[in-house]
Amino acid sequence: MSVTAVVGLQWGDEAKGKIVDMLSPGAEIVARFNGGDNAGHTVVNSYGTFKVRLTPNGFSSPGTLCVIGPGVVVNLATLIGEVEQIQQSGIAVRDRLWVSPRCHLVMPYHPMLESIYEQAKGLSRTGTTKRGMGPVFADKVSYNGIRLFDLADDAIFADKLRLQLSVKNPIFQAFGLPPLDFDQVYQETRKLYAQIQECVREPFGVVQETLGRDGRLLLEGAQGALLDNNWGTYPYCTASITLAGGASAGLGIAPRWITQVVGVVKAYTTRVGAGPMPTELTDSTGEAIQKAGQEYGTVTGRARRCGWFDAELVRFTAQVNGATDLALTKLDVLDSLENVKICVGYLRPDTGDRLWHYWELDAHHLEECQPVYIEIPGWQQHSHEVRNFAGLPVKAQAYVRKVEELVGVPVRYVSVGPQREATIEVR
């Protein structure tokens, strides 16, 4: 029996979609268990280039079921658009897509509320994707959510929508925004639901049946461990559980079934939005990495902040996720650099020479820290056409080995380009 979880070990954007796409052939089920359409995954394969936010990245493997578990919040318009794009590329996915009716819906008022919160925070704003994630998860835990289950009954949906608009509309009016019209929201939501209704079916039974006969499952985490609501750089984080352990609640799969956790990390560090990032580079080196890596958000289009690889952070996230293997992506982005640095810990002002760990600090204190680096020679050779580990420049191999030494987890995959075949399995 093989259940593999693929999770990000940084602040997201680690190229998890590519790794899931690469591992998906042969998987009977590929499942999403957290997040929403605020996290974009880019996949490049023989069918083309796909930028998806909700659809599990097993869609290009015929015979693989694509499951969206109840831990995912669903924007119906986004999901419908993705299904149409995939279908138009010659991939039949509708019959293979299972969306749990327990999924909560992103309603039109959620992005509006998020915008109000961000505006009210001023300079302290979180820097969200403006997709409404915080408010929809807040509604979920405060018993105000609307689920796909509710859309199956017109009367139940109408009652719940009326109640929510009676609470939300006064907030909008207080901030000078027009109230939402019940009839318009009701009809538009019903129309969207009708387009995806055939895919709404609880996947718990098929997941358990597959586990029971030792079938292969691939679990796809969204975003990164450092955005986790408990262990990330709160409040500069997301609303859901981004760790491998989140698959238990977000999909309904017991922890004992997960036999492999692939932690995906870039060969450097990036972050979108506000919050501490100790190794951030605001100089020409940071600009060079950003340009070479095409570091712009899939969902927002915003430029990502770039910096050196932070082994202190990744060692922590590897431990909290139980990572068994690392997938080191975008190694080729560092090809031109004369020297490369890796952060091994932090110094805090007025606390002497003691190195501090990430898990000892909150976001405020992490912002004040200074990174401590080791420096190793760059390889200054192209690596994007290499297809085996021995073929990598010797200094690039040394960099990979140093990463796994500092993190404490073996590097199993090294990616040197966006294509599926540009991934080296390290044996």
Structural class: alpha/beta
Biggest β-sheet, characterized?
A: 9 strands, mixed
What proportion of the residues form beta strands (DSSP E)? 15-25%
| SSE string, helices as H and strands as E | EHEEEEHEHHHHHHEHEEHEEHEEHEHEE
Task: Give the beta-strand count.
Answer: 16
Number of domains: 2
Give the spatial strand order of the biggest sheet.
6-5-2-7-1-8-12-15-16
**Shape by Cα distribution:** globular
Radius of gyration: 22 Å
Fraction of helical residues: 25-40%
Structural notes for this entry:
This protein is an alpha/beta fold. It has 2 domains: 1-258, Adenylosuccinate Synthetase, subunit A, domain 1 (Adenylosuccinate Synthetase, Chain A, domain 1, 3-Layer(aba) Sandwich); 265-425, Alpha-Beta Complex (Adenylosuccinate Synthetase, Chain A, domain 3), CATH 3.90.170.10. The chain contains 13 helices and 16 strands. The protein has helices at 16-23, 76-88, 109-121, 133-141, 148-151, 154-174, 182-196, 204-212, 246-251, 284-292, 311-321, 363-368, 394-407, and strands at residues 2-8, 29-32, 41-45, 48-52, 65-68, 97-99, 216-224, 260-266, 269-271, 305-307, 309-310, 325-329, 339-347, 370-377, 411-415, 423-425. Helix 2 (76-88) runs parallel beside helix 7 (182-196), helix 3 packs across helix 4 (133-141) and helix 3 (109-121) runs parallel beside helix 6 (154-174). 47% of the residues are buried. The mean pLDDT is 94.
